[in-house]
Amino acid sequence: SSCISGNIQGATIVDALDTLYIMEMKEEFKEAKEWVEKNLDFNVNAEISVFEVNIRFVGGLLSAYYLSGEEIFRKKAVELGEKLLPAFNTPTGIPWALLNIKSGIGRNWPWASGGSSILAEFGTLHLEFIHLSHLSGNPVFAEKVMNIRKVLNRLDKPEGLYPNYLNPSSGQWGQHHVSIGGLGDSFYEYLLKAWLMSDKTDEEGKKMYYDAVQAIETHLIRKSSGGLTYIAEWKGGLLEHKMGHLTCFAGGMFALGADGAPNDKTGHHIELGAEIARTCHESYDRTSMKLGPEAFRFDGGVEAIATRQNEKYYILRPEVIETYMYMWRLTHDPKYRQWGWEAVEALEKHCRVDGGYSGIRDVYNSQESHDDVQQSFFLSETLKYLYLLFSEDDLLPFEHWVFNTEAHPLPVLHKDDRNKEENQK
Ligand code: DMJ
């Protein structure tokens, strides 16, 4: 039919490159590199998600380049970055969610509030695009993401919060829904990490991050009667007492940002991270499989339990293990390794299938029903964060590396090196 459109092939291979490298699986890395050389093709008639392609493909290629120094990965990353640029052709420069990479025509998800772009999508390009400019010598990538910040900073924010929806034509917010999970999550992560990746020179990113966390604490973070701290969702001023599995990444984010927290709040941010880690561990521990549900609630007499059938699945997501890894590195409390090991055992017991690992339809059912999908982020994130949790701190140390939202490590752009490069020009 006329609407046949393909996809970029190879997500699992590209997402797994850096994990193979870090785990010293040299033969497999070489095979994957050969696949990239021969088969990774962006000249396809495909309508892609700008966000997903950026975090998995651009991020994966950038990390593979920085770790291995192999030119092919740099070349492919920049080539793909150029393919994404037409997404920014909107009245405000806030990019479209979807882009046909052959025609360059963009549009938004039909379900998104009044034609809006999504905060967690256009807000999760920054790290990769700064590196694309750095590696290509072409400032256009950095200009595109700096303009997104400019648009955001011109807008009034309800209660200091960032709604998940922003219309790229009018430059106005859509529905006033706020989430630290799906549709919002990695926007906040990238504010903090942009500052860290800039060797703490990006003061704008720093301010936006700590201001946002302040508003999140005031309006979204609550404690259950059983003493579990959780992050709720905000809908036009009303709280929905639900926390997504995706939201569990925030424990690690708060801990990672603790060091730079203003007003003597370092200890407080570490504590917040520890409390979110504990709550998310409870969401795992209160299932029969010891793997957490997609979303859990704190209402109607339950705490940290999924109540709706369509929220009981687990698709090999990394966020809880990611938070254990950050908490381990930043506190060395052995409980985080214990909790990580519980997850390893549960994955082996319930998700291992012939040829790989599978998601689970209902983690409260002791009989597993597999969904027969191995998400590419299982290799890029879940296994990488587990590996790092049980490695020494000098493997990808936080002083030199930040992880993109798909767990692809990107080097900190140190002030000294940048000065040297400037002087060489
Ligand atoms: C990944 O693609 C990324 O971690 C993203 O930020 C959220 N969703 C998946 C993992 O759950």
Terminal-residue CA separation:
52 Å
Which structural class is indicated by helix and strand composition? mainly alpha
Bound small molecules, by name, code or SMILES, are:
1-deoxymannojirimycin
Strand order of the largest sheet: 1-2-3
Pathway: Protein modification; protein glycosylation
Disulfide bonds: 248-280
Membrane topology: Single-pass type II membrane protein
Enzyme class: hydrolase
Q: Could you describe the 3D structure shown?
A:
Pathway: Protein modification; protein glycosylation. With 425 residues, this protein is mostly helical. The chain has 2 domains: 1-219, Glycosyltransferase (Alpha/alpha barrel); 224-374, no CATH class. Helices cover 47% and strands 10% of the residues. The protein contains 15 helices and 16 strands. The strands form 7 sheets. A 3-stranded antiparallel beta sheet has the order 1-2-3. The chain has a 3-stranded antiparallel beta sheet with strand order 6-9-10, with no helix packed on it. Helix 4 (71-84) crosses helix 6, helix 6 (126-136) packs antiparallel against helix 7 (140-154) and helix 10 (249-256) runs antiparallel to helix 11 (266-285). It is globular. The mean pLDDT is 97. The protein binds 1-deoxymannojirimycin (DMJ).
Write the layout of secondary structure elements.
Blueprint: H1 11-22, H2 26-39, E1 47-49, H3 50-68, H4 71-84, E2 98-100, E3 106-107, E4 117-118, H5 119-122, H6 126-136, H7 140-154, E5 165-166, E6 177-178, H8 185-197, H9 203-219, E7 221-223, E8 229-231, E9 233-235, E10 238-240, E11 242-244, H10 249-256, H11 266-285, E12 295-297, H12 319-331, H13 335-351, E13 352-353, E14 356-357, H14 376-389, E15 401-403, E16 409-411, H15 415-424
Antiparallel strand pairs: 1-2, 2-3, 4-5, 6-9, 7-8, 9-10, 11-12, 13-14, 15-16
Helix pairs in contact: 1-2, 1-3, 1-14, 3-4, 4-6, 6-7, 8-9, 10-11, 10-12, 11-12, 12-13, 12-14
